[in-house]
Specification:
9 helices, binds magnesium ion, binds adenosine monophosphate, alpha+beta, nine-stranded mixed beta sheet
């Protein structure tokens, strides 16, 4: 009898241990949605530490905003740079700013993260209105990447009124920080969306919808199959308003200080780097299709340009993995 009792106890203990171990190694899924960096953020993670990963993703993005990127939080380095004219930076942030300056140069100034004074006048984040011409001209005098001195340890403005605005690249930078966190853990797969920038992380294939520039956020015009990476879209629909029957959107031509008018309604860029996908989507939008394609290719990125007349241009061999699902849209000839 004693023997049977011992066997029952041993079997029960084994089952319990198995269940505990099984639970510990089981792949789990966790999701989150929150608001940070002035935008909506969502994340879905698969892995044995999914719940922990989700918490870390949230704190990584929030910390990045308050420590580095925010224009309004007085704790951030960008806020301090705008206020005080000089900041000390770590090598990682210095390298990111140097890469942004490179995109600015390579795009012939089309990408300009010193346009904050002009963006403020348009006030797209608040109650936007067309600013006075003279005010735009004055604000433009206080912009230009050459007025920033970026070294490996510091960033300095030579114009006190210049305002740095990382609105066109911050969301992509956030994806790079999230990716380095995920690389250090045991995440199997993740999709993290920060505004118009999305990180596709892990093994397997991802299917992504390309947003309908004239529809709501759930409507798409094409599906793109990708093995992973970062994908960012700049679109006129993101922030815009109408005044006297004319549409004004938030992507500005640094030469004029007015919204870019080149027939494009959206540009999507795919790159391993979130910083590059985000910065290049804005840069390519400003440059237009022809020069935009050259710029994207020079960084080894892939891109999709959509014009107001619903023509789709691509570069970097992406056409093979892009399937148009809306018959109003067609690929450009040739
Ligand atoms: P995105 O949605 O990534 O294209 O970023 C657009 C945001 O970047 C705008 O809301 C502005 O804050 C800022 N911005 C506007 N025009 C430019 C430009 N030409 N270069 C860099 N940043 C810009
Ligand atoms: Mg961008």
């Amino acid at each position: 009898m004693k023997k049977i009792g011992a066997i029952i106890v041993a079997v029960s203990v084994s089952i319990l241990v198995f269940l505990l171990v099984y639970d510990a190694v089981q792949i789990k899924t966790a999701t989150t949605e929150f608001f940070s960096m002035n935008t909506f953020i969502s994340a879905k993670v698969e892995g044995i530490n999914a719940a922990e990963d989700i918490k870390e993703i949230k704190s990584t993005v929030e910390e990045l905003d308050t420590r580095l990127l925010s224009r309004t939080a007085d704790t951030s380095l960008i806020f301090k740079l705008n206020q005080n004219g000089e900041i000390t930076v770590d090598p990682e942030f210095a390298a990111q700013l140097a890469l942004l300056a490179d995109v600015s140069k390579q795009s012939g100034g089309a990408f300009d993260f010193t346009l904050g004074a002009v963006s403020d006048l348009w006030n797209f984040g608040g109650t936007p209105a067309v600013p006075e011409k003279k005010k735009i001209a004055d604000a433009l005098l206080h912009s230009g990447i050459e007025k920033l001195e970026i070294s490996e340890t510091s960033v300095k403005k030579s114009d006190g009124s210049l305002t740095v605005d990382l609105g066109a690249s911050g969301k992509g930078i956030a994806l790079d920080y999230v990716k380095s966190y995920l690389d250090s853990g045991r995440c199997e797969k993740a999709v993290v969306s920060v505004g118009g920038s999305v990180l596709l992380y892990g093994k397997g294939e991802f299917s992504v919808g390309i947003r309908n520039p004239f529809g709501d956020s759930s409507s798409s015009i094409a599906t793109l199959k990708l093995k992973g990476g970062c994908i960012s879209t700049s679109g006129t629909y993101e922030q815009s308003f109408e005044e006297n029957g004319k549409l004004y959107h938030h992507i500005l031509n640094p030469e004029t200080g007015y919204p870019v008018e080149n027939g494009l309604v959206s540009v999507t860029v795919i790159s391993e780097s979130g910083l590059l996908s985000d910065a290049l989507s804005t840069a390519c939008f400003v440059l237009g299709t022809e020069d935009g394609i050259k710029l994207a290719e020079s960084y080894g990125a892939q891109a999709i340009f959509i014009t107001a007349d619903k023509t789709v241009y691509t570069c970097g061999s992406i056409e093979n993995s892009l399937k148009l699902t809306d018959s109003d849209y067609s690929f450009a000839e040739g």
